[in-house]
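Field: sequence (string)
Field: structure_tokens (string)

Example rows 1 and 2, in order.
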Amino acid sequence: MKTRTKMASIFFTSCLLIILLLGTAVYYSFDKYSHVDFDKRVQTRAIIASKYYLEKDTNKSEAYKMIREQFFEKLHKEKEMVMQLESNKSFDFYASKYHLPEELLIQINVKGKATLRDGDVVYSGLKYSQGDKTSIVVVSAENYFTAHHLAYLRNVLLIAIGLGTLLTLYVSIYFSTHIFDPVKKITDKVRQISTDNIHLRLEEPTNNHEIGELASTFNQLLDRLETAFEIQKNFISNASHELGTPLTVIIGEADLALRKERSSEVYQEAIQNILAQAERLDHITKSLLFLAQSGYQGDKPTREIVRTDQLLWDVKETFDKLSPKNHIIVDLNEVPEDPKRLKIMGNRQLLLVAFSNIIGNACKYSHYKPVTISIKATDSEVIMVIKDQGIGIPEEEISQIFNPFFRASNTQLFEGYGIGLPLSKNVIKMHNGQIKVDSQVGVGTTFTIRFPHILAKKTISV
């Protein structure tokens, strides 16, 4: 069942039930009220009749007569019966004589007054005592008006329910059809979008917040997909180029060496070139494999408590040994007194690789100018800032430096494959960390890295 059909059915059924419940409640309330009202009318006439027939004061009797004639409408089949009780006659006698229910007379005699309903006929009477004489006055009338009004009300309600049902059915179908028109337009538009025209976007209506939000969400998704496709295209193109270059050299050197007899020195030079290119190819493939593994968290690496300051010192020591020209400065001015604020849960080897890539880039693109590393901590995070005085990154390219194989436009004079920073970002992300880049061409680049430390109030799942 389609959603619009389901919605129309639910709306129609709900409205129909409400209409039926309201109609039933109105009918039941009116029925109950009309019978109570008619009973009171008959009771009032019984009281007036007793005053009129049995009151000794003639003036009062005439007054009651005038009231009855001027203000009381005669009820349908209204009858007035006045009977003086005699000790030698039973209630069955009076009941038979006046065609009254014997139960009514007994209740009047016991309680002083009583009202009894027999079908549509209502009996109401009271006992009136004058000295040693006792009389019973009974007024009866057929509840014709109530029955007639109820029948009329029932017909009106049935017609109203019928018309309400048709109107509700129309409204249900109309709204269930038109309320999904914007969604249908979005669906039709999305169906037209493919990898060939992924640049297309949905219209975002301003007068419908929910639909506008849905269209905006789709557009944001399409933006991410388009970016992912572009990254994939660039990745394939760059990977093909990076892998193809050493392979071309290897094939060329081998082919050239095998064409004819050559001296041992030529063979040795060719083999050295092949070895260099093979090592380059090996480095690229291993880096790609490491990058892929760092982005997949199916089997999470072993975690332990790691001191971030010690990691940075280890990286500095390694670079100082490999290239004494590097000028790495560790700023300890903001290091917290509590060493626990410097500890995080993580994999030491992966973190060493991440920091080595970032610090290595800072040294490489700085032409051996000072690279400053500072460490500080808050109540929940340990923060590391790596600042260089290198060539910087063009502002429009900062958002792309974490894409595999991407290299800034001003790095042609420096060796590299564009894999280190994406790998570092993946490792930092695996450790629930964040990395931020600020850069200015010709001034330098600053990397700010944040990790939740082990004293953080909120438990971080790693």
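Row 2 begins here:
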Amino acid sequence: MHPHPLADRATRLFIALAAFFCVNAVLAEFIGVKIFALEDTLGVAPFQWNLFGQSGSLSFTAGTLLWPMVFIFTDVINEFFGKRGVRMISWIAVVLIVYGFLFAFAAISLAPADWWVDAAQSQGVPDYQKAFAAVFGQGLWTIGGSVVAFLVGQLIDVAVFHRIRQRTGEKHVWLRATGSTAVSQLVDSFVVLYIAFVIGPQHWPISLFLAVSSVNYAYKMLAAIVLIPLIYALRQAITAYLGPERAHELREAAAA
């Protein structure tokens, strides 16, 4: 008898990593509608940035809480399952994001029940339907920009990761992880805002686009650097789970 496919620890590992990757990507898209003030959240003095003739505070979308985890899972999957693994889960994540938004818009279009609307008003919420639409009904330009930026960023990440890996071999895990994130998120941070807010209906001036994109990129890079120890911890945990020989075998196949 052939062994069950899930008997292979590497297969189970890939499923688990892909699941966490996809749920983080989808959740980041949906909670990204909320903008939070970093200074107030941390309880520190307000900080004002001045770039390209523009100024503002440290305000980010709530999705930035999850994107660093997407970067980490990208690098870990890259490490053990290579280009094919990252490209596969990236396309799956894009399909799931589009699928999620299609059903969100379908849910918005459903006629609300009268008792549901009345319940909202009794709790001091003016209109549940409008609140629901505001949270889940993100603009098509924003959705399109984020999906395109995510996919392009992932494809660039995997290419840069393996280019650095070819030069460093098994050494300097931090370098290929941070280096690939630095290049891919440079593209991601600028593409999403350009499509959503420059090409899109708001028509931001280029100076505002450059300033906000630069601040977002700086935040993502800071998060990537802070989380480097987590990449090493995950790498060690996976090696312990698979066994040193099997882990080395996967890394060699991924690097090929």
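free_text_note (row 2): The CA atoms of residues 59 and 226 lie 19 Å apart.
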